[in-house]
Queue: 3 jobs
Job 1
Amino acid sequence: MNDNFFIPWKMESQILMIFLWFSMLIIMVNGLACNWGLQATHHLQSDIVVKLMKDNGFKKVKLFEADPMALEALRRSGIQVMVGIPNDMLAGIASSVRIAEEWVSKNVSYYISKRGVDIRYVAVGNEPFLKTYNDKFTQTTLPALQNIQAALIKAGLGRDVKATVPLNADVYQSDSGVPSDGNFRTDIHDLMVSIVKFLNNNGAPLTINIYPFLSLYADPHFPVDFAFFDGTSSPVVDGPITYDNVFDANYDTLISALEKNGFPSIPIIIGEIGWPTDGNSNATPQLARRFNQGLLNRIIQGRGSPKRPTLPDIYLFSLLDEDAKSVDPGNFERHWGVFHFDGTIKYPLDLGGGNLTAAKGVRYLERQWCIMAPDANILDPNLPESMSTACTYADCTSLGSGSSCDGVDARGNASYAFNMYYQTMNQQKGACERFHGLSVITKIDPGVHAGSCRYEIMIDVGKHDPVKKPGTSSAGKLGIAFCTLLLLVASLV
């Protein structure tokens, strides 16, 4: 080795320390950002969630609704807030400036002036132009945006609080597949131009949600490596630029669409991006760690895309799992959290100067589980119906094909379903006894020898939060026939 190129180990250590210090400086200045969803049967106490964010360096958060408990917990926290307006409120706000003014007064002005909440953005709707909505919100989104911005200005907040619309990445496309051919979707092209023009004129950012996982989920032939930031096997060549990951390609497709329509420099926020850990064969903690660590590394480095090197604000989706979310898009919808529902860590992540810190001060229900009775027969004709009942009112998405409990045997499947129902019902008296004598309460954790399959103990919400009525999981929707098939397949494992 040429001595001119030799770096003494002390100098290497100094260089490493300088790099780590610079990385931490970038994070301290810009701050990590996350989404805090509230579609759960058992909410982690709001002040615990805010402490969890602060302990892990999150300085910005997006709420999907103006939840009073969440906003109260965020007061004087030093965390910047984007507060959301649900889609079902768009029509009313679009119809009347007065309604918009009332919403801003109640949910923005009050919390800024009286409670010390640092609200920076109002998210008007959430992905309102998804094709699955069949144009339900295309006539109301822009008027609602305009009315909210007018209300903010009237309240004296127009300079400090901006209205934006979080949009799914399907609002733009490239017919050729290369980013430079990007343009807005033809059916909403003029509407998108009007929205972007309005945002630009008001100094507000365009907010886009990008999900590489969904590209992989939707197309069985999608190159897996291209979904991650360390993949190199299937690059996309676009003139002088080579894209080695779908995020850059997707983001620059948006930049091309903006440039074509006269908005080359409008600021952009990535409103949602992440990777789920359950509910699909590609939704695993290992792949989620690979994706999110790659994303965090880019944030630490401050690296944008080839067409726009400046890094946008990026809101990680999501902070916590939500067991009451709709599973229409897929069973993975309830498993996007970097943390489990209770704030425990799913997998290691290096945040640029330290690993994740779990939630502190969480209260749980008694350590007991509802399982299939040892003397119960898996061929009992009441078992499929009992499982169907359990999974109608509790989250059984971990039992699906390719999910974390996929390898559990028939008895384990039944025990999982019974326990999720029992925990969701707060271990109420009689909750474990409703399954035709097939279940029993145990103090021994049934998940100890089940690998990745977790048999939960729920948060003790006590007097803090009311328990939300559980949604219907995919198992519940498919009913008795599904549970019969599930038991049959499991019995063959």
Note: The radius of gyration is 24 Å.
Job 2
Amino acid sequence: MVLVSEISLGGESALLRSWEKACSGKDVVLPPAGTNYLDSVRASTAAFIESAGHELVSINNEGIRNYVNRFDYDKFVKYVKQVNGWTHKLPLVFDNMAQELNLIALLDLLQFGSGYRKELHTATGRGASDTIRFGCISMHISQTLIDAKGLQALTLGDISQHFDIPLFGDECPMAQGSSAVMVSQASELRPLAECILGCLQDTGKRLELGGYSSLADFIIKMCTEKPSAAHLVEMLANAFPSLRDVAQIEDHQVYLFKKAQLMAYDVCQRFGKTDKMFAFNDIEQLTLFADNVVPAMMQHHGLILPNKNIIAKIENSQPLSLPETTAMRAASIVAAQMVVDYANGHSSAATKCEIPINQATLDNFWWHEGKEPDLRVLSRLIYKDTVYF
């Protein structure tokens, strides 16, 4: 069996430019083999915020203590249970466990596009997450092949059809001053469709060249080798650039691995109670799945404090720079760990809580809380050139 991370794809230059630009972590240096990648996320985000990052986003220590002291544990349990149950509630019929695992993994592989939230709602009435869910369910229902070979065979038209993403916008005259010939302009959502296609095609190529029939096949073999969330995250990040969520900010390598961790979490939630290969005993060590929703909620609760430039950009729906975006995401992970430590160390309610307080469960809680009508309207960070969130 060939390790996917060792493969050089000869046709990479032919991949869609939007994906290549958005897949910024594909050439970064990852932690050495055998390193605990979850520890690397904690250490690198803390180091970045303590040095260069604190000028962009700071941690509100007093705000964290006040938040924990008034924490609503009943609401926390209710929301986490609802989020944890999504993998059991897919309105689909599967032929076997591997087929279900493959679809769940693809759903997590494609959890990005948050920067196009406004454009998606205008065009389709759905946000980024619902768009991805809609598209993956469409591919399953239509019996579109989504194994290694099938992912490579997908076209931009397929993506547009399944995910309901328009490729063309308004028409304009081909020649100035003449309406004899009209041409369609590219839709503002076309780059997102290209990123989805590039992500799927590249993943399919790497799976096939590595000797894996599907993403599910890869996950099963990695978990058979070692049933561990940290191990699966390491293998996924090394194998697939679209999961290599790392930002190079000056001299700092900031490891985030949002989608790889989310994949490990969802696999464990869905199959961990019935198959020991997915019963990860280190599942509580996962960090926040840092995206655009959770940092907005943490800012709202006063746990993180962006500088005035970032606040102004967010309030005016202006895109952040990569350093600003990374600081928001990294600070969220650092602050979440402080919430976990303070709650478990100072609150008897936390230790008695039906669901453990850790970064992954807090992420589920804040993500669901961000969908409440009065909180959904909160402005969120915008960063489009990424396939990582």
Note: The longest helix spans residues 322-346.
Job 3
Amino acid sequence: MDKLSSGGMSHLYMTIFLHNISTFMVIPAITDVTMTALCPGRDECSIAIYLTGFQQAIVGLGTLVMMPLVGNLSDKFGRKALLTLPMIFTIIPLGILAYSRTRNFFYAYFVAKTLTAMFCEGSVHCLALAYVADNVPEGRRASTFGILSGISSSAFVCGTLFTRFVSTPSMFQVATSVAVVAVMYMRIFLPDSIIDDDISAPLLSNGKPKVLNSDENSNVELLSSKALPSLPDLIALLKTSPTFSQAAIVAFFSNLADVGLHASLLYYLKARFHFNKDQFADLMVISGVAGTISQNFLQLILMPLLAPVLGEERLLSIGLLFSCAHMFFYGLAWSFWVPYAAAMFSIFFVFAQPCMRSIVSKQVGPSEQGKAQGCISGLCSFANVISPFAFSPLTALFLSEKAPFNFPGFSIVCVGFAAMVAFIQSVMIKAAPPISSERVSSNCDHMEP
């Protein structure tokens, strides 16, 4: 397939920026909205922590099934068609809170968010990664993944900074509007990068697929049966190479820690230091600015120079080491300024995800990029299921008056140990030769013309 022009990639960047800014700008306020609806006037609320953990577990269970399916369907029907659905579903819960944030509307938001996130959570990012893998040569893939992460960090900074200076009602209304604009921009401007020779009509078109093989019925049945990859298919994919398997373990434990941190951190800071929406926004702006500087300077300038010398495997380890350190600083925070200092560590740990995704992309053939990224995202979703059961009860217990000992950040420290497992595994990854872009993997569904 011919690579898209830089204009095509710029449209992807703008799509991701608009989508992410609409989702990120609500993060600083959602903790206050949740606690106001469930435990008004309090800084500690166990039911809010458990409800958030329950939501993450259900969403993780749903995305565990959906991510490999989304990735595999995008290999057949195109990235653009599959991007449309989660971007539209994202609008629904935002619109509910834009209308009202009373208890009844919060419960409606909770249900809508849980159901839509089972499909939307991570799928836009997964499909964007597969889109990049389609259109960027292997040698520039890690730095391009870094650019994509930089776009997300820029959206994170802009969204949280906007939240810092506007009221909660206005913020949800703007987030809903930006989410609508993101869908419209993507449908109008983003070119599709996947054209399957066996199917002439896209998934969202009104036309019926035309199978070019003379045995039409047989091929349609084969396409339908392979829409959802089976468990043996995913296991075979994990066995593609030792490097792929090790990267999958790193992705699992890294995401286990990240989800545990994000689920607990804001409730911990509210109970420990009485943070509110504005302090959350300040903290996220610092973290986002540090990450943006890293991605726009370190990754764009230094990563292309460091990756051939140190290797993506070592850069992955460096990123995970700093990720562990910043989690431990959060958990051991002895003053209100320590979380702000810990947020600065994001200038280094942003190396981790682009390097890990690039390592994965080089271990499969070009026709399996969506399936590979979907498999990794599915493992991350499995971590989403487990993490709330492990860390939400710890957070609720050690923030309550029934804590066995006085250590409010105990659950955050446990999260840091999970990240340390990912770091140790990353040190064991050895560089492996990439799969040639000319090779079609034996696991690929191939039909003779």
Note: The mean pLDDT is 78.
